[in-house]
Amino acid sequence: MQRCPGRSSAGPSPPTSLARGGQRKQGFVHGVVLSEPKVVRAPLTAMAILAAGCIQPTHAPGYPGPASPPVVVGTDPALDALDVPLNPQLLVFLDRYLDPFSVDPRRALRLSSGAQTLEIDVQWDPVTKAVVARPTAPLRPGVRYLLTLVEPGALADFAGRTIEAPLEVRFTTGERTEVEEAETIDDPRAAVEAYFAGDGRCLECHVKGSRYLALEDLSELAGLAAKTAADRDLVVPGNPSQSYLLHKLLPSYPDLVGGPMPPYTTEGSADRVPPEALSAVARWIETL
Q: What is the chain's Cα-based Rg?
């Protein structure tokens, strides 16, 4: 396995195969409900730094991952929560990554109140390992709602396993029409460029004229195939969850050719890509 010069080694994550392509803004959901401390507004963040990289292919198709089906480890709002904002972001947190190309939002989640079914936008956020549902219109105040998993087969992990237990999250809205927002990134592209050139140390290797993918000009990455995985797009405009650049930055992502990036990154290491850099990458991809 060959790595960028001047960097310490780190073992690769177990890989599997991932087909290139897919629809924009797709989403996932699976789960068994578990109440967990409320997490406020997890933005569709993404990590992105290099997706063709310093590590040569060590692809091992068919890596099975966990032997058990995906499990829901928390939700926001929590089960039976009160005073939920009228414009909420509904989050279902899972114990693992899902396959971003297996998602069918129309068959994933349903939000209802009595006999009424509301329209929602469902997406998968691999950074937080959460299925994210957003109502397309404000909810009514003082009303009890039910979020359910419509069809487990609409979402699967990389071994094709789907959630076996039912998902039901009941909550009641309050009077508020606002939600606490995560810190805003005014210029996500500039933030990504700053990280690549600075703390990420990406431009030590990834420059034009080198054997590695050049990351100096982000405008050249959209629709470009990864060097070590020609069947995958580095950046899928508008869709961080299907962008291989993001996958390479995520810790222990199960479907990589070679190891994660940066190559000195290890699970639990202080050198891992910080959340703010991942958020910047995801937001930048969403704006394309």
A: 19
**CA atoms of 36 and 29, how far apart (whole Å):** 17
Q: How many residues does the chain have?
A: 288
Write down the H helix ranges in the chain.
188-197, 244-249, 275-287
Examine the pLDDT at 66 and tell me if it is beyond 60: yes
Condensed to tens digits (0 to 9), the pLDDT of residues 151-184 reads: 878 889 999 999 887 889 999 999 988 755 555 6
> Cα torsion for 240, 258, 3, 285, to the nearest 10°?
-10
pLDDT greater than 70 at residue 120: yes
Cis peptide before 166 (omega within 30 of 0): no
Question: d(Cα 253, Cα 31) in Å, to the nearest integer?
Answer: 20
Angle CA 195–201–205, to nearest 5: 125
Q: How open is the CA angle 105-110-115, to the nearest 5 degrees? A: 145
pLDDT of residue 102: 80
Strands, DSSP E only, in the chain? 72-76, 81-84, 90-94, 109-113, 116-118, 120-125, 130-135, 144-149, 168-173
> CA–CA separation, 65 vs 161, rounded Å?
10
Cite the DSSP H helix spans in 11-160.
none
Residue 3: C-alpha distances to residues 180, 228, 273, 274 (Å): 42, 13, 18, 22
Q: Name, in order, each residue with C-beta under 8 angstroms of 49's C-beta and a sequence gap of 6 or more.
A: 195, 196, 200, 202, 215, 245, 248, 249, 261, 262, 273, 277, 281
Q: What does the H/E/C string look like for 146-187?
A: EEEECCHHHCCCCCCCCCCCCCEEEEEECCCCCCCCCCCCCC
Tens digit of pLDDT for each residue in 20-33? Answer: 333 333 333 333 33
Query: With a threshold of 0.90, does the pTM exceed it?
Result: no
51/196 Cα distance (integer angstroms): 12
